[in-house]
Amino acid sequence: MIEVLRIGLGVVWFANLFFVLYPPNDYFGNFSALALSFAPVSFGGPGFPDYVAAHPLFFSWLIALVTGYLAFAFTLGLTTRIACFVGSFFSAVLFAIQVGTIFIFPGGTDVGEHPLYILISAVLLVGGAGRSLSLDAWLRSAWARYMASRPAVARPAVPSGWATPVTLSSRTLLTYFIAGTMISMGIGIGLIVSFPPQSTGAGPPAVLGPTTYENLSINIASNGWPQYSPANFTLHTGVVIFTIVDNDSPMNWTGCPCPVLGTVGGIEKINGTPVHIVSSNNVAHSFNVPDLNLAVYSPGGNITQFTVDITRTGQFVWLCVVPCGTGADPYNTPPMGVPGFMTGTITVV
Ligand SMILES: [Cu+2]
């Protein structure tokens, strides 16, 4: 029974590994954008997510390798006991880092499962998982056979990563386990609370400001026209995380599927799901800045989020290219093209 639980946990980690390796997800390419998306919801402030986003190679590979190790270790029952510790500490750090999002998006993200992983690891550890149906058990018996076939000289101990009969008591193991998990959680909290906001690019060629946020919404004005608000606004150079809350109704527009252009990672997140291509199903409006090569699409009744790294100052016109005019020709009737409704000016300083 306990071995079934172990293999089940291995399969769950394999599912995570699949997410990492599945090419359309572009895990490594999107890693920075994904990390940055935690910035506005991290209770310790954006410092740590910014730091992770600035070092994507290290952090993306760290997570990918640990995920791969846990997938194979639990499924095959290889170094089971070590995997219980590694898995629990890993979950504890991730849980601490992501816990701030629980309070912002209830039920969102993958926060929920980490406590479960920790609990399962504890059960596996105390239950002595890895004694059957596992490479640990096979290696141990193979080792024992090998040693038995040799004249007894000095017998090295069985490597302790394999689930040997418990020489440490369950109680001792559990103590280490709980202490380590608590320490890992403390490290995770420490990381997000104590990391100072990044001062990016303090030097030539461009002085970039810290990450800033721009919140836009699309509402139906009193005259019945859909309207962006604010339509004219000022930004600072640097990384800007946009959120568009679209309160208009969705429609099918045959001008899409449309590729997202000009954002960090080439993605926008629709209700938290990153996409490269926006389907035609329920696009209501778009947010295009031709001079920044930016093109983002906003499905009606959804929240769209995207990150733009702005390096140029000046005035930039934005406009909606999705036909939302209220007249017979929705491409050429108001509010399409009307300043303050479906076009406006961004001032970058
Ligand atoms: Cu529009």
Task: Describe the 3D structure.
The chain has eight helices and 13 strands. With 349 residues, the chain is an alpha+beta fold. The chain has two domains: 193 residues, no CATH class; 140 residues, Cupredoxins -  blue copper proteins (Immunoglobulin-like), CATH 2.60.40. The longest helix is centred in the first third of the chain and has 25 residues. The chain is elongated, with a radius of gyration of 26 Å.
Bound molecules: copper (II) ion
Distance between the termini: 63 Å
Give the percentage of residues in beta strands.
15-25%
Largest sheet: number of strands, sense, barrel closure: 6 strands, mixed
Computed CA radius of gyration, to the nearest angstrom: 26 Å
| Gross morphology | elongated
Count of distinct structural domains: 2
Count the DSSP helices.
8
Which structural class fits the helix and strand makeup? Answer: alpha+beta
Share of helix, binned: 25-40%
Rounded mean pLDDT score: 83
Quaternary status of these chains?
single chain
Order of helices and strands: HHHHHHHHEEEEEEEEEEEEE
Topology (elements, then pairings):
Elements: H1 2-21, H2 27-37, H3 47-54, H4 56-76, H5 80-104, H6 113-126, H7 135-148, H8 170-194, E1 209-220, E2 226-229, E3 233-235, E4 238-246, E5 258-259, E6 268-270, E7 273-275, E8 277-278, E9 283-289, E10 294-299, E11 303-310, E12 314-319, E13 343-348
Parallel strand pairs: 1-4, 3-13
Antiparallel strand pairs: 1-2, 4-11, 5-8, 6-7, 6-11, 9-10, 12-13
Helix pairs in contact: 1-4, 1-6, 2-3, 2-4, 4-5, 5-6, 5-8, 6-8
The chain binds copper (II) ion.
